[in-house]
Amino acid sequence: MGKRNTVISIAKAICIILMVIGHAEAPGWLCHFLYEFHMPLFFAAAGYFFSTRYLNDEMTFIKKRIKGLYLPFVKWSVIFLLLHNLMFDIGILNEVYGNETGGVTHPFSWHQMQQCLWNIVTAMGGYDQFLLGAFWFFRALLVASILYLFMYKGLTVLFAKVRRLRHHQSAIPYLICILLLLICAWKTYEDLKVITLVQGGYRDLMGAFFFGCGFIFRQWETRYRVRWWTTLLFAFIVWWFSEYMIANMNWRSTFTQFLSLPVPALCGCLMVYNVSTWIDRREGVVKRFLEFCGDNTMPIFIFHIISFKLVSLLKIWYYGLDPQQIGCHMVIHEHSQDDLFWLLYTIVGVGIPLLFTWARQTVVKARNA
Fold first, then answer.
1. pLDDT band at 2 (very low <50, low <70, confident <90, very high)
2. Is the peptide bond before 330 cis (omega within 30 degrees of 0)?
3. Three-state SS for 80?
4. In the predicted model, what is the mean pLDDT of residues 277-287?
5. 33: closest CA among 328, 238, 276?
6. Closest Cα to residue 153, out of 172, 171, 174?
7. Residues 72-115: pLDDT tens digits?
8. Residue 200 to residues 2, 62, 293: CA-CA distances in angstroms?
9. In degrees rounded to 5, what are phi and psi of residue 128?
10. Is 286:6 a contact under the CB 8 Å cutoff?
C-alpha cells in the first residue's frame, strides 16, 4: 500500500473549512473569493485519485462510488426527512424565517414525505435544503466521476480502433476536459437542462471537468514546483476574478459565468495545493488537525448546518432577536455583514462534527484494543 498523500488531505481540509466559512455568511469579499475555487477543488481532489485500472474494472469503481457517495446520501437524507416535522415542533425550523431571499420551508404532509423519499432514492434530490444544503455535492460527484470513467473508457476503445490514434492515448484526459467544456458552453449558452438530473446537470458536468483536471495534475505532480511567487500570482488571479468577473458552481450559471469559472478555479486549486504543501512540510498541531479534518470531511458536510444553530441561539441572546430567527438558513442574516459571528459559526460548524467524530473513533479504538 502506498504512502497516504497528506498534502491532498490538508487541501481537502482547507476546502471544507472554506465551504463552512461561505455558509457562515462571511464578509462578501471573502465569500466571492473562496467561491471561485473551493468546490472545484473537491472535484479535483477526487479526480486526483482516479486510476486507469478501473477502465477494465468499471463495476469496482461504480460500487466504490455508490458506497462512498450514494449510500451516505440516502441514509442521512432519509434521517433528516424523518426529523423534518420534528424540527418545526421543537423550533429549529419555522415558517417565518428562512433564506436571504425570503424563502421559507414548511412542514411536510404524509404525501410530501413520500415524494421526498422517492426523490432521494431515485434522483438524489429531495433532501432537506435548510438542514442539508451542501448535499448536492454527493450527487454531482457521483455523476461526474462515473461520467468521466465512461468517457475515458469510450475514447480508449475508439483510439485503439483507429490506427492514427493508437499511439496518442496519453491525450485522452485532455480531450475529455475539452469535450466537457464544450458541452458546458453549449448548455449554458442555450440555457439547456439535463432533465434527468436534479438542478439541470451544470454542476455535474463542470464537476466532471474538474475531476479530470485533478487526474491530469496527478500525472504532472512530480514535475510541478511549489513557489511562493506562483502562490501569490494564483491568489491575485482569483481575487481579480472575484472582483470583476464573479463566478462559482451555481447550478443557474449563465454563459458568462461559465466562461469566468475555469481559470480562477484552477488557479485557486493550485494556490491551495501550494499552501497545503508548505503546511505538510512542517510538523505540528496545525498539520495534525488539518489532516484529521481532511480525512473526515463527511461529518462536516452532514452536520455543519445543524451545528450552526448553537451559534444562532447565542446570537439571538446577544442582539435580543426574535427567537424564531433560529430558523434562518444557513445562519441568522441580521448583522451578518457587520459583526464577527461568522468566525464563531465557522469554528462550531467545523469543530462540533469533528469532535463527535474524534470521540466515536476513540471509543472504537478502545473497544478494539
1. very low
2. yes
3. helix
4. 95
5. 238
6. 172
7. 999 999 999 999 999 999 999 999 999 988 999 999 999 999 99
8. 38, 22, 31
9. -70, 105
10. no
